[in-house]
Amino acid sequence: MADRRITLETAAFLDSPQAAALRGISAADRRTVSERLLEAIHRDFGRDPAELDGEALRDLLGTVLPGRFAPRDPLAAHVPAVLEAYLAHLREVAVVTHAFELSMAVDPGLEAFAAAVASGAAPRRTTARESKPFEHGAAKTGRNDPCPCGSGKKFKQCHGKQG
């Protein structure tokens, strides 16, 4: 579901006048940067972009998003322009509840982003491992098995009655 949502939101942004106004950035670079931005918002924060507040945007730009770019990645230079255009697009199509906070958090967040990408100190994003369900090591006692307490009775007639 999140992949489809990211794809649709990316396509809506790329078709917007705000994305068309980005000169000097190829369409492929616009798509890549906006997809990475939206993936970080949806997957790492679990929020809709219109629900972001200033603190979340600073965290996104300072810690999460730099991990999606290699150190000194040339695409990272396009993040400020694409982010500004995306936020303008978001204000056009949705009610942004924390618009003022977002506008105040953009500059400090972008400075932190640039520093993290330039230094290469940002944690690299690794693929998440699928969690396996917990499996008990011991075999389950059957109803007709001898009770593990050692009484010699069947489990269902001894301790099995209690559960």
List strands and helices in order, with pairings.
Elements: H1 2-14, H2 17-20, H3 27-45, H4 54-64, H5 79-93, H6 99-119
Helix pairs in contact: 1-3, 3-5, 4-6, 5-6
Protein name: Preprotein translocase subunit SecA
Biased composition (Basic and acidic residues): 127-138
Pfam family, one: SEC-C
Features:
51% helix, mainly alpha, single chain, 163 residues
Folded structure, characterized:
Helices cover 51% and strands 0% of the residues. It has one domain. It contains six helices and no strands. The chain has helices at residues 2-14, 17-20, 27-45, 54-64, 79-93, 99-119. It is elongated. It is mostly helical and 163 residues long. It comes from Engelhardtia mirabilis. This is Preprotein translocase subunit SecA. InterPro entries: SEC_C_motif.
Q: Looking at the chains present, what oligomeric state does this protein adopt?
A: single chain
If you average the pLDDT, what whole number results?
84
Main structural class? mainly alpha
Number of structural domains:
1
Fraction of residues in H or I helices: 40-55%
Give the strand content: under 5%
Reported for the largest beta sheet, the result is: none
Shape: elongated
How would you spell out the order of helices and strands?
Answer: HHHHHH
Number of strands: 0
TL;DR of this structure?
By secondary structure, the protein is mostly helical. It contains six helices and no strands.
